[in-house]
Amino acid sequence: MAIPTEGEIIQIHSYKHNGRIHRVWQETTVLKGTKNIVIAANERTLVTESDGRTWVTREPSICYFHAEHWFNIICMLREDGVYYYINMSSPFLYNKQRLKYIDYDLDVKVFPDMTYTILDEDEYEQHKKEMNYPNEIDIILNNNLEKLLSWIKQRRGPFAPDFIEAWTSRYHFHKQLNE
């Protein structure tokens, strides 16, 4: 598998279990790329939905993807603090300037005070039936949800206090290079 390089502009492609495209983020700047981790950032990037509708992200975001964990974490930098949106998803794959993953519907929203809400459980159950998710997916996602919730409680990974500061600084560096 190819590895994205720091400073590279990539697209993020989200798919559903049936192989259909779900959502595409047009431009995201890679801040760190290894075979296991991609940390990237975007701001006011065009997003295209599967039905062709488009919208533009509102705030700067630091994105964390892992090749072994079944979730990805979007850290949204707002005036009143950092909000996190986590997609329960397959680990990422990367090729031809595209980072790809399968979105498994379940989401977790984390607020600046580290309280959280699990979202879209009904959508997960519906798609599980419609797309015939294997039982193994259910087990993997539940185990990874537990792991994610422990990261939030322990403030590990992207939830660590210095994570946002370090990667926001790196993102500003790359923005200045491209201006």
List the helices and strands and how they pair.
Blueprint: E1 9-15, E2 21-33, E3 37-42, E4 46-49, E5 54-56, E6 61-66, E7 71-78, E8 81-89, E9 93-95, E10 98-110, E11 116-119, H1 121-130, H2 135-154, H3 161-177
Parallel strand pairs: 1-10
Antiparallel strand pairs: 1-2, 2-3, 2-4, 3-6, 4-5, 6-7, 7-8, 8-10, 9-10, 10-11
Total helices: the number is 3
CATH superfamily: FomD-like
* End-to-end CA span: 31 Å
Sequence of strands across the biggest β-sheet: 1-2-3-6-7-8-10
Gyration radius, to the nearest Å? 16 Å
pLDDT < 50 runs, ≥5 residues:
none
Order of helices and strands: EEEEEEEEEEEHHH
Shape: globular
CATH class placement: Mainly Beta
What is the level-2 CATH architecture name?
Answer: Beta Barrel
Tell me about the biggest sheet? 7 strands, mixed, barrel
Structural class: alpha+beta
Domains, number: 1
- Oligomeric nature of the chains: single chain
CATH topology: FomD barrel-like fold
